[in-house]
Amino acid sequence: MTSAELINVTSVTSLTLVGLAPLSDHSLFFFFVFLSVYLFVLSADSLVVYIICSQRSLWRPMFCFVAAVLLNSLAASAMVYPKLLSDLLAGGSSVRVSRSACLCQAFLLYSLGGSSFMLLSAMALDRYMSICRPLRYAALVSPAAVAVLLLLCWLLPATLVGGGVLLASRLPLCSMQLSRIYCDIYSFISLSCGGGAAQLSEVYGLICTTATVFLPAAFVLFSYGRILAICLQSSRSFSSKALHTCLPHLLVFLSYSISTAFEMLHRQLQARSDPAASLAASVVLVVVPTVLNPVIYGLKMKEVFGHVTRLLSCQTER
């Protein structure tokens, strides 16, 4: 690499996001579409969290984890939707973003994404203890234990992802164009000039993904597998009640897993994918879980659904 090329590489201070290029001809239409989605996410998540916090009958570990997942979803939405709406309103096919702002967004999205899987694994642990170890449930799943689990679910991904972002921030970049609608660490690393530092970042990223996605997902599958085995050996009424309480969590877990699998598949095909495929991967990863979470918990959990209908009916009467 010549001295002129070296200066050009090390002086990259901003990146260009071109993920919105397929929507540039209809940007105003999609602005209202994503605005409607974001308003729904804000109102639905906030409504369910408000009901859980305001009703003493819902002050239980299971609903505490539900509120944490929805708050996590709200935070992730705030990292994407406002900037996306601003970019759509501007109407351009490309968006300039500073290198530091890009890394900051990537850190927040990846740490919140890892927290989502860890929170779902904490839910699975709660359901496992409640159904498979009912006599020890109150002692083991105490308020202090729930608080420790919540802190672990948020702090561990933030710490691991923070290390990955720090490694990525030191990489020299040979390109400045991302085919995404938001910044992510994997795409950022793909812009680097390669070499040992980039390989180290990729290996560290795999370790982070294993710790915050694959291992929690495996624990969720193991826990619900054990619950299913217990239900098959129990009475019909007990099995029906147990499976009913687990169904919403399984549906949310499936929405996160399918969205993440779609994103990982796109990573493997990224070199051969067109802008429309990149846009689809970005939208699926962000929109699907944030929209489905409040719908599933609001409709499938009868305790929450009952309070939602009563609250809305009172407002309608007024």
TrEMBL record:
Cited InterPro entries: GPCR1_Superfamily_Member, GPCR_Rhodpsn, GPCR_Rhodpsn_7TM, Olfact_rcpt
Transmembrane helix is among the record's keywords: yes
GO molecular function, one term: G protein-coupled receptor activity
Keyword Glycoprotein: yes
The protein, known as: Olfactory receptor
Organism name: Sander lucioperca
PANTHER family: G_PROTEIN_RECEP_F1_2 DOMAIN-CONTAINING PROTEIN (PTHR26451), ODORANT RECEPTOR-RELATED (PTHR26451:SF860)
Assigned keywords, A-Z: Cell membrane, Disulfide bond, G-protein coupled receptor, Glycoprotein, Membrane, Olfaction, Receptor, Sensory transduction, Transducer, Transmembrane, Transmembrane helix
Gene transcribed to yield this protein: LOC116036685
GO CC field: plasma membrane
Transmembrane segments: 30-52, 58-81, 102-125, 145-169, 204-225, 246-265, 277-299
Topology of the protein relative to the lipid bilayer: Multi-pass membrane protein
Main location: membrane
